Structure formats: C-alpha cells, structure tokens
Amino acid sequence: PVLSEINKNRSDQDVFQSATAILASSYFSIPSDIIEKYRDSGFSDKEIVLVLGLSVRSGQPVENLFTLNKEKGQSWGEITNSLGIAPGDIDDMIASVSQNAVGSPQE
After folding, report:
1. At a CB cut-off of 8 Å and minimum separation 6, what does 87 contact?
2. pTM higher than 0.90, yes or no?
3. Would you tell me how many other CB atoms lie within 10 Å of the CB of residue 27?
4. How far is residue 65 CA from its own chain's centroid?
5. What radius of gyration do the chain's Cα atoms show?
6. Residue pLDDT, tens place only, 47-100
7. Which of 25, 31, 38, 103 shows the greatest Cβ crowding within 10 Å of its Cβ?
8. 88: which residues sit within 8 A by CB, 6+ positions away?
C-alpha cells in the first residue's frame, strides 16, 4: 500500500512529499497537519526526513530539533554534531529509518 500511494503522484516533488507524509504518519504517528506546519515554517521535506532520522537516532523530540534550527539558528551540521552523529552517518541513518518505517509502522 505504501508504494502504490507514492506512485499515485507524478512529479519527484510529489513523490517525496508523499513519502514524507507516509513516513511521518506511519512510523512516527505525526499527523499530516503537523507536517504541513513544518513545511509552512519553511522546512523542506528533506529537512523533515532528516529531523525524523535524527530524532530516532538521538532520542530527542522532533519539535526540539526543529527549534534548535529555526529559533536558535543552529545549522543541521551543528545539530548533528551536538548529538554525536558523524556527518557520514546521516545518509545511512535516513535510509535505515525509511526502511524501518516501511517495514514496521507504529499502530
């Protein structure tokens, strides 16, 4: 069902937005209106997925990570470093979170 939902969209941006929404709602139980709030605040879908991965890896709440970037002015590199996550680990981390989300959604 996840892939068929994503494939309903035609553009790469639509596919990524669908994937972000499915990942957020299925694995993290974050409603789509909250994802829209993050988008409306200026965060890209890539940043949203990054923050979801950082949250899983660090145990920090998603909202705290967005606050560090938006209100405290920290770059994602600074935030990642402060969490003790090496820059090279980010792609693997996001891939792992995405794979886990598809395989084991929260109820």
Report:
1. 77, 80, 81
2. no
3. 19
4. 11
5. 14
6. 888 888 888 888 999 899 999 999 899 998 899 999 998 877 777 766 665 565
7. 38
8. none
